[in-house]
Amino acid sequence: MLEHRARQGFLLTVLALAGCTAPLRPVPLPAPQAVSDAPGMVYEITGSDVTVRLYRDGPLANLGHNHVVATTGLAGRFILREPLTSSSFEIELPLASLTVDEPARRAAAGADFPGELTAEDREGTRRNMLGPALLAAERFPVIRMESQSIEPRGDALEVTARVNIAGAIRVLVVPVKLRRDADALYVSGRFTVTHAELGLAPFSVAFGALRVREAMEIEFRLSAHRVIPGT
User: Fold this and answer.
1) CATH code of the domain made up of 37-226
2) Which of 68, 69, 164, 224 could form a disulfide with 105 if both were Cys (CB 3.0 to 4.6 A apart)?
3) Whole-prediction pTM
């Protein structure tokens, strides 16, 4: 049976800088303070769960498998400020923490992910995912993400983040729900992103007759606890 090799990866970006015209008689002004330097409450990530669902596609799709890629290994911090749009975050995802098609993950993913795959198939997919043609984990072992902007959108937030993956950068826009409870912070979200938006080409064989679907689903839950100075 042909093995469906998942091409995933979480993301990449280009930053646009805005300019301004100088006044006719300029006067010295203090340098603007970066948002990340402003005071705020620091929360360190203490728990995480990220799931990526990838689907088979093409006329020979029945010869492949859908895949579940996951990690609980995120690290980083959030800095909450007033207003909330001045907040920021930094997150790291060690690629070594990624798993592929764990039986419990497949069972929880629903009817589109039937049965267990062999250990050999799972390891082959993982090796292909981390290899030099995709995530290049030996050269770039960590995916890094940092905030660019945070905007309210109804009862949620729209977060624009810069993501450094495999040595390249792209911008990712993510819908996020945020909840605070005493000294804890909870962040969650679910969204769909295409390979094209991440700068990736879906894996395919047989001239595209068997390939990975363009869109992938990402779901995440993070918990963080406040860092109290002096403790």
Assistant:
1) 2.40.128.110
2) 68
3) 0.78
